[in-house]
Specification:
alpha/beta, globular, Elongation Factor Tu (Ef-tu), domain 3, 2 domains, about 280 residues, seven-stranded antiparallel sheet, about 30% strand, Rossmann fold, 9 helices, about 30% helix, seven-stranded mixed sheet, 16 strands
Length: about 280
Amino acid sequence: MSYPIIFKEQMSEQVFALRVRAPQIAAGALPGQFAILRINEGGERFPLTLADWSAGEGWIFLVFQVVGKSTFTLSKLQVGDELKDVVGPLGLPSEIEKYGRVLCVGGGVGIAALYPIARALKATGNRVDSIIGARSQELLILEKEMEDVSTSLAIMTDDGSKGAKGLVTWALEEELKGEGADLVLAIGPAIMMKFASAVTAPFKVPTRVSLNSIMLDGTGMCGTCRVEVCGKTRFACVEGPEFDGNEVDWNLLLNRLGQYKQEEAVSYEQARSGCCRE
């Protein structure tokens, strides 16, 4: 089965969006789930969250940032090109219930994963107040989409080029000091989710994070996605990707995510220079 690219958009310098024909995945997709891709026969497997989908039209929408060889290769594909494998939907879907006031906090490409969850929470009758951020205005994505599914939207940028200058965690703390919340959902870089969880802890607000761990098979068999939650080993691909942010061993997770950074950097540079042929 082939998975043709039917739409491509460059959202910022290093962030791209693809719409891929995958009718079976689109038919079963739910907020919070992901797919695992393989670009070609010799390519590695890597996960991307389902940012949107259409069961009727048979496509899934994927947003990714170029961080290594595989995402660099993926960014060079064009409409009409085909992916070798797309497996999904994988992972447990988000728990969508009526909670009350939900604070949705997104950073960087994590905003793409946050969007379908926020949309579902709003449709269920929750008050969804969202905070999204990036290093600068140029790197901010899905602003209009998040505004459409939120009761209110606050924007934070590191350099102050859009919205308020500062971190999303600063805005989160102010919201908790003000009206409080019944649930916080934070998705973004691991370090952002770590500090978002630290902010919510004193307020005793239930806090969910989505762990973008290293994944290979997506079935829990290989163990590369293991994380420690509440002192127990959990497998993010089959028991997550969402967990209680205040129960995650963030230091262990961050150490594991940085384990192969040197090798990843070398592979990326080889791909960029054309030394690596698929």
